[in-house]
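Below: protein 1.
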Amino acid sequence: MVCRMFRLETEVDKARRDLLRTRLREANTNASPILRALRGTPDERDVPLHVWAVNDSDDTLAGGLVGYTWATWLHVNYLWVDAPHRGTGLGAALLREAERIAAQDRGCVSSRLETWDFQAPRFYEKQGYEAVCVIPDYPPGITEYLLTKRLG
């Protein structure tokens, strides 16, 4: 039940979003000794990690990986390989390089990513990832997988 002295608003408000994020972060930090210990350390912030496969002959993009590291985890947001280069090992090479940077240079011990059933869950399993969550009908008619891997 919502108290009568409040009104509910639904417009997009970036200032309120930022305030909400700050307040939630403060509440989480106060509630968790682990998050509290991260405060003021390099692991506190997301650090972008990008790996690009660029054709030597014409500088066109053949593939890439976009992610970030946070709190000893590599988060893979996007991994894409241009159709003519699929099945050549380029995707695995991009992923291995991101994992190497995350583990060796940034001290990451694990990696996580999400993929849909029509994308690449089997590819990631071949790279050592394990499905830890499967969400059917997200979006309707598609299954989403959350996969993780221990690095090192």
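Below: protein 2.
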Amino acid sequence: MPPPPPPEPVLVGPNVETARPRIEEHQGEVFYTKTGKPFTYRTNHYTLVVVESRRNVQWHEIRSALEAWPIAGPSEIPRCPERSGRYVYGIVSDERIRQGDW
């Protein structure tokens, strides 16, 4: 009798605990807003700083986007100002961060 097949992989689901190390790992790389505008960011303990605009993105804005996932664009991120939402969406929707988990 053959052994049972391995279980199906379980999706991690979007959460900041999974996403934060990935976001930190890819800082300095080029990301794109939904409209195709390129940007880079750097992280620190409290924020992400979008290099091109010197805009601060708060980690709680990343958390809001992940908790609301799936979303179609930046305007659907709760408690996230429009000026930050375009960058938040560009980060959390990128496959380097998602890695097929959401």
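The mean pLDDT is 92.
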